[in-house]
Amino acid sequence: MQSTTIKRAVARDADRLTSLIQNCGAYQGPYASIIPGYRVTADYITRHQVFVAVDETGRLQGFYALLLKPPEVDLAFVADDVQGGGVGRLLIEPMITQAGAAGLTEVRVVSHPPAEEFYRRLGAVRVGTVAPSPLKVNWERPELRFTTI
């Protein structure tokens, strides 16, 4: 098994983060409407707490984006071929620590429905449901919270 490093994303990572989103198998079929045209920009990476998981060759395995105001995981993706191998945990656990160090007591996650159990296994608690927001998101999404303290 290859080792994974978590590090701060830089502006030049924008295209490969976008590519990971665009090729995510979890957003096919009924969930596909959210993906077309979605881009992670260099400006987005500069303005937010975006961290990537890379293997020793530099290959992108996943990433997350933490917004501090309001405190929320805005994006979290793991490459299809490494899902189930612990990369998601390697991303989310330090995100919770990072949020606490920034003075946040909790972090909101509006989850992709199939990812809800993943977040719950890491300690998130479901606090509600977010209604669909047409035109792109046509399904209810679980709303969860991580407590940082």
TrEMBL record:
Entries under Pfam families matching the protein: Acetyltransf_10
Q: Which SUPFAM superfamilies match?
A: Acyl-CoA N-acyltransferases (Nat)
Q: Which residues form the N-acetyltransferase domain?
A: 4-145
CDD domains, per this entry? NAT_SF
Superkingdom of the source species: Bacteria
**Can you say what this protein is called?**
N-acetyltransferase domain-containing protein
Species per Swiss-Prot/TrEMBL record? Streptomyces graminofaciens
